[in-house]
# Entry
Amino acid sequence: MQYDPIKKTLGIFFNRAPWMRVLFYKLLDTLLLRTWHIKKALKEIRTSLPENINVLDAGSGYGQYTYHLAQLRKSWKIRAVDVKEEQVDDCNAFFAKLGLANQVKFEVKDLTTFIDPAAFSLILSVDVMEHIEDDWAVFRNFYQSLSKGGIVLISTPSDQGGSDAHDHDDSSFIEEHVRNGYSREDITQKLQAAGFTDIDVRFSYGTPGKLSWRLSMKYPILALNFSKLLFIFLPFYYIVVFPVCLLLNYFDTNSKHSSGTGLIVIAKKH
# Structure
């Protein structure tokens, strides 16, 4: 299933005015379960970080999480990188309109080759690693780019149904993915090989989260891939499912899962 064209269509629609794009960010923050887990992890992490730090948004995409980082602490200097030049130019223009150009800078970089030695105290990578074949190189670059005591926070699908693939031979629901997901052991070993020694891997998207994802993402994406005309019915659909997804997201975020289709990974450099 092609996901990027859907994201591009939604981006064009909500990019008509800065307030519309900010509203879109806030809607995504509320609806998308991964954002609930990321926000919870960031709240936990930031207490151990200094007030004035450099942050890397590794694979910034549409800029949703970059915006959240900029709002989380005004003193943070954020460098957001992505391989798509069009996306980077768009984000730089948008964040300049918001008056955040002095705090946030977007650049075209390839995470498999990008290193800025000991430059960052925090690296955020949200649903990026499943798109990159050479993940070993990225994890090594993350480690080298972190300062001593720095933290990397990663959200990625697990191998227990992540990307909606439930068997080894299943193809990913999102065709842009190069892997369906990581096992806890696999991503831990790769981060250890990169140099990380303090690694916490948690499951997300347990039973409540899987249902929320189907209602909030899978079914709408399937509908829009069938016909873009169905876009006009989305607001009415979400009026019905939105309260249900909020409840499911709350339970998923505030529960411990023995398994799940997502992983939240926190790793430190000592």
Observations:
- Residues 12 and 21 are 10 Å apart (CA to CA).
- Confidence is low (pLDDT under 50) at residues 168-173.
- The chain has nine helices and seven strands.
